[in-house]
Write a structure and sequence with these properties.
Elements: E1 4-9, E2 14-21, H1 35-57, E3 62-69, E4 72-74, E5 83-93, E6 98-107, E7 114-128, E8 135-136, H2 146-166, H3 185-188, E9 190-195, H4 209-228, E10 231-237, E11 240-242, E12 251-261, E13 266-275, E14 285-297, H5 314-341
Antiparallel strand pairs: 1-2, 2-5, 3-7, 3-11, 4-7, 4-10, 5-6, 6-7, 7-8, 9-12, 10-14, 11-14, 12-13, 13-14
Helix pairs in contact: 1-4
Length: 342
């Protein structure tokens, strides 16, 4: 089944829907679709609608490039045979940024039942096709009222501030672990090296954000599976920040390590370093950062207890406490939302 795309024009911006059936190569051995597959589809819908919008009024041809993905929750696992319906809509534009909000529905084509699996917010900037270092201005959209525009502006300022803060991350590297015990950070840590080829890129010579996110989810999934040795699925992804472009021919090193475990979830820090081997002698530079949260499931899809992470160093203790704080903050926000909806 080929991907099906529909275009709708609504206020404040146009919206599209992309649909595709989930195949065995989209899923793990238990039949659950990889979170990275969903993230890649979300970003593909986002790049289509934002690139179209940016070229409607601009005389200078440009392509939208992913700059940030806000926290994304995986509300329900998707399975082989489900049809994923990915709907994207432009909800805010600044001078150089465009916000795209995406919903993902899973359809059981045997029964017709549908369920919401994901909500995501993505931010793009537009780069000139003739000069990829030039950021092109974004055409504005029409808002239903001033309040809608003001809410969008607040979201824009918040994500801009967070991107600046996360860009200051330390130059962490994952060193090979020797003679490690089960359930330690070193036991499950993993790295993947990927050479960026033409199939990873779209209209320019830079890797698509969805490709990077899929690789990040693969590494995080390996870390989680090594720790639990059970079926694992992506539960959520913290904000993903793209700090620099990754061009064709570059070597990406995607690294992941366990930072925190609760009774039913585990947090994995994933960071991407890029080595522009053809262009720069400077070596690796940080490109993308994020935290992935996974849960472990039994054959009936019920959550299993997570083995406690064994802490061995002061750095691991610090990262564990930081992860605990993120976990408690997310839990408090979820409870507040539940109380508000009652």
């Amino acid at each position: 089944m080929q991907a099906d795309e529909k275009l709708h024009c609504q206020s404040p911006g146009c919206s599209i829907q992309v649909s595709r059936i989930m195949r065995p190569d989209d899923a793990n051995i238990a039949g659950n679709v990889h979170g990275g597959t969903i993230l890649k589809m979300i970003e593909e819908a986002g790049i289509i609608i934002s690139t179209r919008h940016c070229n409607r009024q601009n005389k200078e041809r440009c392509v939208a490039v992913l700059a940030r993905v806000e926290r994304t929750d995986f509300l329900s696992p998707m399975s082989i045979g489900d049809v994923a319906h990915v709907s994207a809509e432009i909800t805010y534009t600044s001078k150089h940024s465009v916000e795209v909000q995406v919903n993902v529905m899973a359809e059981n084509i045997l029964t017709g039942a549908k369920r919401l699996t994901n909500r995501a917010t993505l931010w793009y900037v537009a780069l000139s096709l003739e000069n990829v270092d030039k950021v092109v201005e974004i055409p504005s959209v029409q808002y239903a009222n001033p309040e809608q525009q003001e809410e969008g502006r607040k979201r824009y300022e918040a994500q801009k501030l967070d991107r600046i803060e996360t860009k200051q991350r330390s130059e962490d590297i994952i060193l090979p672990a020797i003679n490690v015990e089960p359930y330690t950070v070193g036991y499950s840590q993993s790295s993947l090296i990927h050479l960026v080829g033409p199939s990873d890129c779209a209209l320019h010579k830079f890797v698509q954000g969805g490709v990077t996110m899929k690789l990040m989810d693969e590494v995080a999934g390996i870390v989680a599976a090594r720790h639990c040795k059970t079926n694992i699925v992506t539960a959520s992804v913290d904000a993903i920040n793209f700090h620099q472009k990754i061009q064709k021919g570059s070597v990406m090193t995607v690294s992941g390590r366990m930072t925190f475990t609760s009774n039913k979830s585990m947090e994995i820090e994933v960071f991407v370093d890029v080595d522009h081997v053809m262009e720069s002698p400077k070596g690796k530079a940080p490109a993308v950062t994020a935290f992935f949260t996974y849960v472990s499931l039994d054959k009936e899809g019920k959550a299993l207890p997570i083995p406690m992470l064994k802490i061995e160093t002061e750095d691991e203790k610090r990262r564990f406490e930081e992860g605990r704080n993120r976990y408690l903050l997310t839990k408090a926000k979820r409870m507040a939302q539940m109380q508000k909806s009652q």
